[in-house]
């Protein structure tokens, strides 16, 4: 079931858009999950319709037991809160309701706000209210594509953008010796993340039934042009530039400074990247999630070349006014658009 605004063969689900090469696998995985779940209900004489199955945790499971144990998280609490976000429980919710296509807002009760962060790219996302551990902050939105396609997108996706986007990139490198290609690679690489490994692993169905996940090869989530405000969340590293002396790009201890994490949660057979608070977060505190040392290593070459040419990541964000980056005075905050907001208008047309 393709959502509004989807291209041919794409699938829109829970604020995510799946590439045409991945969408059929997602549909098959969801169909297999539903068939197995209904068969189990009939075998146990509990009915034979989806509405006879509870919403959480019967229809979903967190696929990362290690993360749950490490942070002392509650599996059932996370599933219950995600079910509410997806409209499967609560006021107007139904356990047999179709999954929303999107976009999905981030948790309204957290009152998330965009904040200035000069040390980490110019801006970030902060809590405007107290957030408790196990709070589901939202589903990280974006475009999901095969890793091979993501490599092409990161290398030359700007060529498929509209003329206005290419002109913005050209203006962004004015006064530097960096070129548009380098600026794009830095930009695209900054807003991509590996899709949760649960997509390659087995996606469990409630009970003892386990079904193969939809993707046989790694996938990438691109938030540039497609993501929601979750893309603003920074890594806790103070100096992620791997080529700078004294950097903490590979430091293991930074993981303990993160206050939220992206957990893979299988919902009706498809694994979603769900943003969860891993500890209590105070009002005004910036949200931080660990990107992993691999992220900074992969971006290091392009990042170093860009800065050697006089183009910093902070300046690039400011010149392009990404999420308002660089547009606020020191110490100012602005409410984050927790609906789906494009990082760069027109960039979504660059998805392969």
UniProtKB/TrEMBL annotation:
Protein name: SET domain-containing protein
Taxonomy, superkingdom: Eukaryota
SUPFAM superfamilies the record matches: SET domain
CDD domains per record: SET
InterPro entries assigned to the protein according to its UniProt record, in alphabetical order: SET_dom_sf (IPR046341)
The species this protein was found in: Tetrabaena socialis
